[in-house]
Write a structure and sequence with these properties.
Strand order of the largest sheet: 2-1-3-4-5
Number of strands: 12
CATH topology of the largest domain: Rossmann fold
CATH architecture of the largest domain: 3-Layer(aba) Sandwich
Structural class: alpha/beta
Oligomer: single chain
CATH superfamily of the largest domain: Response regulator
Strand content: 15-25%
Shape: elongated
């Protein structure tokens, strides 16, 4: 059985070595590069199963790399874990909105990094039937297999995170989800949850849904639900 591959895009050689050592010990095949440009080339030439991406990179920064990877049909399916010393909420929110699957701030625990990578790859490898079933409601159709949302047959372009939130809410219309439940469902355990990150993603989702955005309702003091 082939080893799952992880591409590490990080310019700090000490951190490269730390990440590479711990992931190799867990049985992953590791490829480390030191710049965004090299990371893009590596991601496209030999598609990895997951990317660990630093935000502070020489040349093209990590957020731009994330945007380019998620905007390319060839690489958009690759999960991304952001690894960054930039703990500001705005950077985290931006990365999640661009489609990153998780983030870890430096300094970090190698055990936590390994656990999060394992969780993401396990979820990606074993989609449930309910996750893959198309949902049709209020003239919207959400098709997980094609990662596609349409309104009266017209496609709506959503980021990975926006799509997952809509899918979660629409699968159980009328059911209220807390912000923690939303983030936990999308990214698994051990995720630093901020109200701001979920709220910003909901704002973006509503804007892109246009007139259908009214179906994503705020339940004050609790969370969000999709209107029955």
């Amino acid at each position: 059985m082939a080893k799952e591959s992880v591409l590490v895009i990080e310019d700090d050689e000490d951190i490269q070595e730390l990440v590479s050592y711990n992931l190799t010990k867990e049985g992953y095949q590791i490829n480390c590069v030191g710049s965004g440009e090299d990371g893009l080339r590596a991601a496209k030439s030999k598609l990895p199963n997951l990317i660990v991406l630093d935000l502070m990179l020489p040349g093209i920064d990590g957020l731009e790399i994330c945007k380019l990877i998620k905007g390319d049909p060839k690489t958009q399916h690759i999960p991304i874990v952001m690894l960054t010393a930039k703990g500001e909420e705005s950077d985290v929110v931006t990365g999640l909105e661009l489609g990153a699957d998780d983030y870890i701030t430096k300094p970090f625990s190698p055990k936590v990094l390994v656990a999060r990578i394992r969780t993401i790859l396990r979820r990606k490898a074993k989609p449930t039937d309910s996750d893959e079933a198309a949902v049709s409601i209020h003239e919207l159709t959400i098709h997980p297999g094609r990662h596609e949302v349409t309104a009266k047959g017209k496609p709506i372009d959503l980021t990975f995170t926006e799509f997952k939130i809509l899918q979660l809410l629409a699968r159980r219309p009328g059911w209220v989800f807390t912000r923690y439940q939303i983030v936990n469902d999308i990214r698994g355990d051990d995720v630093l949850v901020t109200d701001r990150s979920v709220d910003v993603q909901i704002v973006g989702l509503r804007r892109k849904l246009g007139s259908y955005g009214k179906y994503v309702e705020t339940v004050r003091g609790v969370g969000y639900r999709f209107k029955e």
